[in-house]
Amino acid sequence: MPKTAVSPVLRPSARGPSPRSPRSTREGSLYRRSSRVLTDLLVSHFSLREVRNTPCPSCVRRCLWWFGETMHSTPDDTTTKTNLEPTTPDEAARLWAEQKMDEVARATLELQRTQINQFVDWLADEGIDDMREVTARTVHRYHTDIKAEYAQSTVSQRVATARRFLAFCVSIDAVDPSVPERIELPNRQSETRDEMLDEDQAEAALSYLRRFEYASREHALLALCWHTAVRSGTLVALDVSDVEESQNRLRVRHRPETDTPLKNQERAQRYIAVSEDVMSVIVDYVEHNRLDVTDDYGREPLFCTENGRAPVRTLCRWFQSMTRPCTWGDCPHDRDPTRCDAAQRQKDAKDCPSSRSGHPIRRGSITRHLREDVPEKVVSDRCNVSQTILDRHYDRRSEDQKAEQRREHISDL
Predict the structure, then answer these.
(1) Is residue 371 one of the residues assigned to a domain?
(2) Least enclosed by CB within 10 Å: which of 36, 44, 242, 320?
(3) pLDDT band with cut points at 50, 70 and 90 for residue 375
């Protein structure tokens, strides 16, 4: 075992004067201090009540040397290695659920399982099929990918759940023990992002789609999101059968058993009224342009790809693609669209400074509702968001706008 060098005062010496006879005032003072240190160590290390006799200088040197060797010795390499077992993300999630089933409330388990499954799905999309490949940088990329789609508090919660899941994976030798420790959680109390889709930009995009791509998938998607301010997860959960044309409304249901949970679960179940114009776009899209596919459970998703139900990440790319200003007009960033990757490729649309994903579109729609004097309670119920969160995260009216709107309500008093 390699030894760490220790001060000569602490190591017994074969030469020199007797250790019982300090030869200088300095050495005597050092002996008294070392004696007190040794006494404290004996009491704490061996759980002694007290040390009755003052140790002699030789004992002090020998014992402190022993403590130095014990505390500073380099451990054998074999004790610090972790033998990780190959484990797929799906298997790790299953083992986690089995352990937690009897430890937490059912609602908590369901929420955390949904978030972990989303993390596992993200790992699959990234081509990671072994938990040994997951690092702190992996979680950082996950954080970066989801922060454009959710509020800051939601992002923080999901990253925290991923970290707890990885801590469990450490306990079953599936992930390196250092990974959860190096993951930094986003600050839930940080400034809320102000990014949103402006009303002018939304109307310009919808006008273009109405004229040149009427009832296309993109037209139906943007028209519905801008008109109702629904979450992207809610759009994913909608089936063709949820479109009730005769009532001009959509039925929103929490169906976790078939992989379409809602963020607020049963509390998010509701009917959403839509205008006749928007309903016409949706119906025409379903009848003429929707792909005739079903998901893994035999359901007919309202928004889909050739492979089935479109996930949130796909909706995000579609939103970013259709909100690029160069689609319907000039580029406001002085770029040449023919040489701009963000303009030429849908997958790079996120690099356009003006493109917007689902959450900023939701924020812009909610702000529009409030500016048009829709009561906050109505907006809260329609968008499934509490009035506190509505004010904190979504309402982007200026204080002047709020004051003028209040003035209109009390002008006759």
Answers:
(1) no
(2) 44
(3) confident
